[in-house]
Structure formats: structure tokens, C-alpha cells
Input
Amino acid sequence: MIISIASGKGGTGKTTVATNLAVSLGDSCMLLDCDVEEPNAHLFLQPQIEKSETVATFIPIVDEGLCTFCRKCADICRFRAIAVLGKKVLVFPELCHSCGGCLVVCPDKAITAGGRELGVVEWGQGAGVALIQGRLRVGEAMSPPLIKKVRAYADTRRTVIIDAPPGTSCPVIAAMRGVNFVLLVTEPTPFGLHDLQLAVEAVRLLDIPCGLVINRCDMGDDQVRDYARQERLPILLEIPFDRKIAEAYSRGRMIVEEMPEWQEKFRELFGQIKLEILADIWRRERQ
Amino acid sequence: MRELVIVSGKGGTGKTSLTAAFASLAKENVLCDADVDAADLHLLLQPEIRRRTDFMGGSKAVIDLKRCTSCGLCRDLCRFEAIDAEYKVDGIACEGCGVCVDLCPAQAIDFPIQKCGEWFISETRLGPMVHARLGIGEENSGKLVSCIRQEARKLVEEQGLELIITDGPPGIGCPVIASIGGATALVLVVEPTVSGLHDMIRVIDLAGHFKAPCLLCVNKFDLNIEMTEQLEEVARQRKMRAVGRIPFDPMFTKAMIVGKNVLEYKKDSQIARAVQEAWDGIINSPAMNSYGIRSM
Ligand code: SF4
Ligand code: SF4
Output
């Protein structure tokens, strides 16, 4: 089972929910940090990194000795990542989308596969949880290929929890596609509501069941709850604002470390998610 | 013309609330919301849209089954697993590379250009604003960011204004890269937490690639004073100026609920003074000032 923890808006507490949930479930689960631009789960789990792998994506390498400057590569490239200027071929690695078009069309076998480093995938074990995290290379623009790579290492026999990036564009989609459930973390403020609506649109586009966690539930107004009622989105957990939680968080401590009684609540949350998944399967079968 | 871009690395640190407050203090400025993925600035500024333009991004492959001979070549070529066994293209997975389109022997694949979002030029009580809405699940957020930043530049020139204040996106990926190239200075709004520190360092490294000078503004500094000092120490080591410390205050949320920035909500408050101080620090910083802009 794979559960993605997402939110349109950043800083609503995705990582808090992901790490606390994972720790509460213990070694039956695996946490994937797919917020590869700013991976934070490790700051709370403090894992020993046991293994690390550099991940690269395809870019063309041109052998000008074999090249006949026919321009076929430049013609097929929709991203202007390869250009032919007189007797010179220029490759712009950071523009390349790794589609391989140039490689296929080159009639002279002048193009071979090179690589552009996307970042690293790291494996570790911390606070009783197996963590796999992606870390985008600073300066790299494209995160979805690295996110896909992190997900490819998931052991799906276990409960897999994904800490997704914020937003609603392609990186989030890469972290939510094909999962069994999306848990959306929001806060009851106008920004929270607005970005939640966008996130719900994204989840519905992918046709995945979802539920809400309202963080700092006592710090805003009732609009998020009204919206949830209207849209029939189940609210599975509410976490009140507590200066103690906030201060502990600032030092890298999880809620369940500070207040162990929360473990039970996170386990209940997991139970509710399972029920929601079952209800969804049942709904689909009836249709 | 100068452009101040507000970024943070980590999301939800108060970028947008501070951007809106700074807009009250700046004069002769244009606002630009570059967080096209989850734009929120309009919720505080209630812009009146003057002009609405479709944003056309890349194309997506569409296979015409009447022409398709099921040869399977496109499925072999597509590196994004976007074409299924029934020769239907999955629009979300399609990268828009057009390799299948060009190489299909039956020429059965069309490649219509897609509308990926919209952008707007608006009027607000705090000056003109350029903002956008990227379609759900779309790529090309970087392109849209570049597009609205360019429009903001045009607007500043047309109206004879001085400054663009840009609310940037979180993270360090494609929309952030598109937000910071060519900026006069970046303001990093950071919370004093281990995540805030970790994410800030990655943004500083990214800014280094683009030679954009950075300024630090610590939000909710009183949640962890030690960490605040640590952030400021890192800033010093990186030759960044720390321009302000904003205290934690539920007033930010209260102001947001009534659609105002904190200065409009309560002019005479501790928060208002802290925001003013931060703004003075920004506008008088060498990064902003070397071009001769004066504190207003
Ligand atoms: S792999 Fe695709 S995007 Fe990259 S250079 Fe070749 S044709 Fe262009
Ligand atoms: S355009 Fe590229 S990504 Fe899209 S279906 Fe064709 S080969 Fe695949």
C-alpha cells in the first residue's frame, strides 16, 4: 500500500505528518522523501545513511568526427537542447528532456548516450523507519525524473509513505501517480483553503481517494471544514497549534517524541486511511 | 528598474504575507506573483483583472486510431511510457517531445499545442500586479514564470515605475530558477527551524549560481532564538545581510482571513514595526542601493 502525503501549500506540515505516521507504524513501513528539492524528513528521523547512488538522466554526446552536420537532431528536438551551427554541434544539457529523439534520428551514429546528474538517492534507517530520499542537485531544474527514481526503489510489500513536494504541477503529480491514497495536509486559513482546492483538483484528475489532515486546526476559520463537508472529503485528523510542538519541531523533534500519546492518534489515522481505501474500492465495484 | 524576489526554499514560511506587507511600504512598484503553482498573493490584494491572456505551453501527442496501423514504433520510442497498448496517449505522462509524431510511419499522430494556464495583468490598491494560474499537473511552470516576470518588467517601464516585488515559489527547482535569474536581490524568508536552515542553504547555493545577492529575514524568530542566531551566523558567513526579525504573531492569520496585509490590519503594532525595519534594511542594503534607490 502506498500513501502520498501532499498539500498544495508549502509548510502546512506534510513532513510532520509523514514522519510521525511512519514512526508510529514502526518497522512495517518505509518512508520515501520525494520532496527532492528540499528533503526534510531526514532532519527528524536522523538516519544513518547506508547507501547513496548518483542518478543521471540521458543527454546526447556528439562525436563531431562522425557527424555530417545534417541537422536532423536539431530538427527533432522540441526543447532547443541541441543546435547545429556550421561545422559545430552544440548541446545545452540543462534544456534536454532526455527524450532520446536526437539519438534515434542521427543517421551517422554520431550521437551516444551521456548523462546529466539529477541528484542522489540515499538509503538510511532512523527512528525505526527505513528512509529512501532523493536530493536534487542544486542548479538542476527537473525534479520529476528523480522522484520517479526514488519511487522505483519502494518495497511495495510494506506500507510505503511518500512525503510529496508542495504545489500542484508536475513534481507533485510524479509523487502521487498510482498511489492508493493521498493524505492532504492543510491549515484552516484562506491560503490553506485556496491551495487545498487546487490539490484536490490534482488528486481528482488522477482519480485517487483522499482525505484531510488539518494542522494548526485552531488557528484560522471554518472555511476549510465547510469546504470539506461540501466536497465530502473526510477529515481524518486535526492537530492543534501548540507552541510546544512548534518549538520542538524547530529543533528537529517529532510530535510523538514530545508527546508519546500521539502515537495512538497516528495509528488511528492509519486505520482510517485503510477504511477509506476499502470504502473506495467498494464504491468503484458498485459502479 | 530593480527587482526584489522573495524566496524561502521551504514553503509556508510567510513569503506571501510579507510580500503583501512590503507592498504597502514600497511606492511606485509593480507586484508579481511567481508562485504560479499555488499563487496566493491575490487573496490579500483582491486584484481587478484588466487583461487576461492564455498561456500556451508545449504540445501533446494525440494518436488518430483511424490512421494508426498499430506498428508499435511509437511505444518503443516513447521514453515516458505515455502510450498504452491500445495506442492511447496519457496526457499527464506525455512530455511533449514529439519524437513519436515525427517518426510515426503512418503519420497518425497529431501534436496540438496546449493551453497550460493563464496570466493576468491587474490593478490592486497597492499598485499594478502580474499574476498567473498554471493548469493542474502542468509542466512548463518555469516558462510561465519567465513570461510573467517579463510582463512585470514591461509594466514597470510603461508606467515609469521603479521596483518590482516578486513573490517567488518554494523549492529550488525549475520555477525557482526561472524566478531568480537577473533579480537585483533575493530576500530569503526563513523560519528558525532545522528545516528552515537546511532549505535556506540550498537556496543560497542556487542563488550563488546566478550571482544574485541574498538578504535574510527571519520570520517567527522568537520560536527558537538560538536557531535564529544560527541562521544569522550562516548568513554572515555567506556574506549576506540579515535585514530583519519578525516575531511570531497570530495576527498574520487574522489579517489573512479578512484579506488584508498585517500593516493594513493594524498599523501600529509590534509586527508593523518589525516589518518596517526589515523593509528599511532591504531597501538600504548595498544589494538594492548600489543602483541609487533611496529609502521611501
Ligand atoms: S534527448 Fe531529446 S531533448 Fe535531449 S537533445 Fe536529444 S532531442 Fe533534444
Ligand atoms: S510526444 Fe514524446 S512523450 Fe509524448 S507520447 Fe510521443 S514520444 Fe511519448
